[in-house]
User: What shape does this take?
Amino acid sequence: MTTEPVNQDLWESMRQQNRDKAIYEQAAAYAFDYLDTIVDRAVFSSDEALKQLSVFDEPLPQKPGDVPHILEMLHDYGAPATVAQGGGRYFGFVNGNVIPGSLAARWLADAWDQNAALHVISPIAAKLEQVCEKWLVDLFRLPEDTAAGFVSGTSIATLCGLLAGRNTILERQGWDVVEDGIFGAPPIRVVASDQAHGTVRKALAILGVGRNNIEWIPADEQGRFDVDRLPLLDDNTLLILQAGNVYTGSFDPFVPLCAAAQGAGAWVHIDGAFGLWAAACEQTRSLTDGIDMADSWSVDGHKTLNSPYDSGIVLCKDRSALVKSLQASGSYIQYSDQRDGMLYTPEMSRRARGIELWALLKTLGRSGIDALVARLCENAKLFGEILAADGFRVLNDIVFNQVMVACDTPELTLSTLKHIQASGECWCGGAQWRGEPVIRISVCSWVTTAGDVRRSARAFVDARETARQKQAG
Ligand SMILES: *Cc1c(COP(=O)(O)O)cnc(C)c1O
Assistant: This one.
């Protein structure tokens, strides 16, 4: 069969697109328009914008499409259905914004389209991962030669840390998981607080440790690991701790916990998705005292640090434990004497996310990162103070960037949250805390100012007023 003429046109038109750059300029113009208007946009998409998403419901096109038209569709119907995370009044989940220098570096690197699997596939990606590894270990004050793997987020980073821990513990018992698998392996102990994040539970399930095999320790009233309830540990134990509780922002007391684990030879993993960054800030560093005694850590770039999605990092004190658990083989894989990124991650082909992470760390520097973390925490404190003065119940000690509030009754809390979410003024999520519905505020954007906090707090008060009026009927 010969190539159809339509395809000849296709290759030629794509060559032309790379020559004249018009489509890239069009995309850049749309992006600039988005960035210019983000601060004033409604934080959540309008009903109209959501309805118009139906323009995307079409059968797979039979023929190649017109790129300017495709970009226009994204601009006209896609952008209005984004959530304005970049605008300074988004406080949902623990979603960060993006630092401009990092975004720009990513655009550039997107044009490079590098695969970070091996040094021989991308020397620059390998180099910048190596630099990021060194800088992060320094920022977090972790043991020298701690290894870093650059993955999609803390979910995968935690999976990798727990994998290295599980395999090391089993190896001590003479069991090689890589060779002999997990079925029939001797049991290991897993100790975790009942406040462990959902992704920890998921990672353990993937690793063959079910919910019923875990020694759950009831947390204290701030969601911290209760040291008094720590069971006797041994060298067959995986102890899972947390830097930054997703509800309260609290930190486990690492010094006594890690000391006990170290004494017993247990493996400690710390889920520090957003909280590990406390170690990089003078004001909050003491929250992370003792983390250097752990064995592995997971942390996100895309939350507190405001890197572009998706960016997570697994850190492991014992480099070889991580590599042994993740190394792939194949006669065509060409390892080098330089950094080969895939040794530290589950993936082989992988986006070179170390490039924009490096640019971010260099853009902010040590003092900028310190200031970013401090800024998030100060705005969270301010949010809590204003809401308390406005008659909301603040349910947590605000030690980091999380604030959890409720109204006088559960019904009023739920209805107020609904009106906040519909207001377009700001956006927060809800949750259950100790049996009652709560409103979760996560201050996670460098853009957010004290003015944004005040304006958002007013939206809270207005929403509660609307909710009260509806209740009064
Ligand atoms: C967000 C979060 C995770 C999951 O991280 P992802 O980057 O979404 O995979 C895990 N633990 C905590 C405490 C988190 O806040």
In short: The pocket of pyridoxal-5'-phosphate is lined by residues 94, 153-155, 197, 199, 244, 246, 271, 273-274, 300, 312 (CB under 6 Å).
